[in-house]
Amino acid sequence: MKMTKYMKWTLLFCFMICAALFTGCSDDDEVATLAEGQGEVTFKFVRNKVFTISTLEDMARLKVTLEKDGNKIDLKTVDLTGNEDELTSEILALEEGTYKVVKYIAYNNKGTQIQEAYVDDENIVTIKHGEMATFYFPISIRFVYVNNQLRNQLFGLCEQVLGTDSTKWPKTWRVENEDLLTWENLEFVVDDYGNISYLANIIFDNKTFPGMKKLPELISSFSTLEGIQIMDIPEFEELPDNLDKSTLYAIQIMNTGFKAFPKNFEKMKNLRSLTIVNSQLDELPARLGELPELCDLEISGNKISEFPAALAEKLQKVVSLRMNDTKLSTLPSTIFSMKMVSTFDFRNNPGLNSLPESRGEGVRMGGLLLDNCGFTSIPKIAQGRLRTLTLANNKITSVSANELNALSSALDILILDGNEIKSFPKMKSSSLMELGLNNCGLTVIPDLSELPELCVLSLSDNHIIEVKDETFAKCTKFAILDLSNNAELRTFSDNAGFTLVDQTVNYRSKKTVGGKIVEYGEEHLQNAAKPFYLNCVNVDNCPNLVWEVPETWCCIKNFHVSNKEDLELPVRNVIVYNRGSNGVTRKECPVCKVDDQIRVYTFPKTLEEIIAGLKENQDK
Predict the structure, then answer these.
(1) pLDDT tens for each residue of 181-211
(2) Which of 457, 503, 464 lies closest to 482, judged by CA?
(3) Residue 491 CA: distances (Å) to CA of 444, 464, 465, 487, 576
(4) pTM of the model
(5) Which domain holds residue 49?
(6) What radius of gyration, in Å, describes the C-alpha atoms of the chain?
(7) 581 in any annotated domain
(8) Which residue from 236, 340, 346, 417 could staple onto 438, CB 3.0 to 4.6 Å apart?
(9) First-residue to last-residue Cα distance in the chain
């Protein structure tokens, strides 16, 4: 009995000693009784206000730094009480006055620092005698990560994927490398001073994480991570089941063995962009429609053969939908009820040969991309509001004037390359700016007289014989013409009708002095009608073409920019590409005389040559 009593008092004594030691180790002493001229303040976190703090439930103690009259004041460390939705600090006494809340440091219940954050605005608190002030930490908080904490999290990823042998970890992810900004495959957001604010993105590839089969659950512990990319890892198959606990905004998976979405994936409340390319998905589950913020969806290069109708009905925030290189053969009748989608991209689905004909009310549909599919005619859905329609390399053998003129009155771009239509009827459109008819078996340039806004025309790989007078006379803004690889092309009229503007060019004689071209003598005037909008004509690989490019295509006055400097852009030439077309030459331009000799105009061959020429002129 005495022994039991003795042990009881001994344990009680030890407990009191421990309590005393714990109290003595705290950062500061107890708050004194409120003195004259003092007020009180408490600090509060509320999740729906400070939504960027995902580790609210981990915060147990708080140390706040204030500023008054230019002086920094570090308050003592205090406890936080509450729950995962709201935390409130102990009450602190302060002298009367107006303070600026500069930053705070948060600790967990083990005493480990878990956050350091600066308050950039909404950071004023006023203390009055005898009154209680409450400062709510605002949304605009700039976090500073504790390097050791982040390093430990990253080491944890390596251990779970590659094992404990650090020699197998990425070479830059080593204990001795303390500069996180030099670690490969990591993307940080930094402040104006170059300090890390937070880790935003991690790239998992076969170089840094070879053979990774499953993404570790630890990924959800990174409280500021916005995106992950998993690339070129054939063995990769699984995402963890706890991604709904993560902060991820974007997931990109490319060239992997990924097969199926994990449970709870549809509960990811922040996910905005989802890309799965060249992987092994064979099903697109309807539950993805539960993703509340999904805006961008790409599922390309997978084995998917069906798009669920329920998914189309629910994904009402998606603005871009891409499903290339799949086994799609049909689409649900509800597919065009996705109101926010601006571009539907179904390219490279050879089994797809028809589309629903109706769309939902208020649908924003702007682009429909159907290249390399199985269509034999232009789908009727294109008759509604649409800006871009591409049907390259389908099975269309003819198009009628009625089909073309029934297309959207807002259509800007129409691409029909690679369809053996042989002829293109007269099309009427007050909006069309680009027309693609490459490799269509055409023998003549179509009638363009009802396309006043046409700027770009592509007619390569056809059987066109000539460019006639007035071909482009009604296209008042025509800029780019591609006639490359028309082996039968023989003539190009100087009166093709490109928009001409009367221009007067002042020039002086030129000669070479010391290797440089200098101007001398009186100014001369040259009056000519020049193609103001025309920028480029491509006649590469037209071996039978005999054509002398007009001198009026040189030294064209450029656009005038009205600004403070009243900028006049330098004169320019129409670029003419003529690789493999030896019969193409250029007429003399009087403005380009050097030493009373006509300067030989060299045709630019590639974009790289043009850039090199610009740099050379700049050096001079």
Answers:
(1) 899 999 998 877 777 888 899 999 999 999 9
(2) 457
(3) 12, 10, 7, 12, 15
(4) 0.72
(5) 38-144
(6) 35
(7) yes
(8) 417
(9) 106
